[in-house]
Amino acid sequence: MGKGDNKTKKGKIHNKSYGVSRPRPNKKKQNMNTSQNFYDYLDSSNFDCKSISDIQSGLKEVCQDIKQEDAFIFDFEWQIFNINKSFEYKMDKEKGTVNGLSYQFAGNRRLEDGTEIPHYFPDVSKLEKKDFEYCEKRYADCKNLFAKTEYGLMVYFGKQTDYSKRIDFKKQLCNELFTLAKEYYDKAMQGGERNYYDLDFLKTLELAFTIAEKAKLSDEVNTISNYIFDTQQNWNIEQDGTLRVLVDLSCLMSDFFKIFKEKVDFNKIISKNLEGAKKLEETNIWGTHYVIDKVLIMEQQLGVSQENSRRYKASIYEKMMADEENKNRCIVAVDYAEKALRLYQSLKDTDKINELNQKYNDLRGKIQLSKHYFELPKEYSDKVAENIDKAISESDENEILAYFIATPWYDSIEQIQKNADHTSKTAVLLSMTNTSILDKFGNTIDVFRTDEEIKEHNFWQAYTFNNQLGTQTMHQFFIEAYKVGKLNYQFLMSYLETTWLNDTIVRNYHSTQVEIRPLDTLKPSLKRLFSELELYFADDKYTFDSVTITDSLTLKIESILRNFCEKIGILTFKLRQKGSDKLVMEKLLDDILVDLKHSTENSTNFDEEDRLFIKYVMTEKTGLNLRNKVAHGLMDLDEYAFGNILLLFSIVMKLSKYKFTPIYSPDEVMSDEKIA
After folding, report:
1. Shortest CA distance to 294 belongs to which of 311, 314, 321, 274?
2. What b/e sequence results for 556-580 when a residue is b if at least 16 CB atoms lie within 10 Å of its CB, and e otherwise?
3. Does residue 663 contact residue 558 with C-beta atoms inside 8 Å?
4. 414 against 112, higher pLDDT
């Protein structure tokens, strides 16, 4: 096992969970100069997960008068208690993780030649079989329950010894973790300021259950399942700051639904969650929203009606709307009104639809069809409005369309990167902290842990902020241009028919020659956009159809990008081996965007500003990720926003600007095309 590098000067904390140290036990100091002295010190203690600093103090004391043969042991012991252990970690040695095990600290180490390389402490990728054999022996000998389970988890996740594969070992470790979890539960119930044992209880309980489930330990699965259910049902919702445990226990049962559905009553779980949600309404309306979403997932799993929960969720949106309206933040209030309205529409509740329509229209005096998150100073808004009016009055129809190609309301990539770098310098913790991206179901869909990944995440956060501000301006520009008659379907088609989107592409389908034009499949969704606008402005009670337009444009843009690649000779498919056969599969949109990136080796001439704009809107998990959400049916009615339609409209315009010139081979036979 490699030693830690104390000279690492920069890095980040990875999943630090031992943030609170408790008072050290009042013990007489021992003269610890051998490994056995340290083992005895550990065995005679009542240390738990909050005692890492006490364990490290014991190791430091040992190291003051160390024997050479014990040097490796003490260094490795230090690392064992700093290695994070969880089923969430997958094999990725380049990122400092192996299955179940991960570092505590990551940074860069400077070599003698001045180059920097990634550095992890502890570096779990360097663990060897002898390290796990040592942990196996310590697991057998150690008497302190917390330390014993730490050694046991090293053996379990390492999977490098025969003992690690034995059922009796997994059974013993599972029961020890279960016992430890129950101890943490008792400590959590004692309450008190900065008592975070509830989180340690959840983490340890989940480890115990997952080990039992994976090893098919039926007795343990039944026992722990019943305990989880009983604990969730008996949770004291009056205890401050602990309602998260109630919900997380529910999520654990929901995650293992196939197991729990035969053992517990999910209707009772849902009822208890709703009881907790009502309590949360008193102090944390956002927390209530989170709980209801979890309830909706469980109801979906059960296949029961979601009507009451959806109605409850709509009422919460109404409360959030009222709160924002009272704070004179009408832009945000409109967003909540729109979400509540969408839910009531799905419930076909005529009375509430009429009520919310009226409220929505009252609030919409400041902003229409919008979904924004920043209330801008009046002076700034007035100046933007003045500039928009001036630009529209001085521009003809083609110049109006050109604005959606140039999108001057957004900063350049270079400026956004500068903003991200500045934020990282002024918010040091933000720049060091690993981040997980969750979808609305609470599933982790992406993580950012290394320095490079965190820098990328900070860039996308800055991009999001800039995009939301810029989209407000684009929204206002679009509506005003439409109102004065300088932006409509006829003008748009007159322009697009002069672009490559109207060029004929000849294909052979099973020896049959077929001619296609990309624009033909775009026309219906673009026509629907302007026909819906006409209906909307003619009747303020009309519900704008964002769903059809968003879904259609999202998928058609992917089609256009494939046409684009076809014109410049980039393959849109790849080969996949299945046994002895080679199969053809279409490339993912992410792969296509990578292929379009311009470089010296890959001269596509594709504008990087356009490429990142498309990536943010279509596939970036930190961004809007519309392609994935639409294709997999992950968007609810209340999530379809007019701002997304404008972003998709702008992508179409940006792609339309490219022109292609043929590339000729030496014998004057046309071989391909390139972007002019």
Report:
1. 274
2. bbbebbbbbbebbebeeeeeeeeee
3. no
4. 414
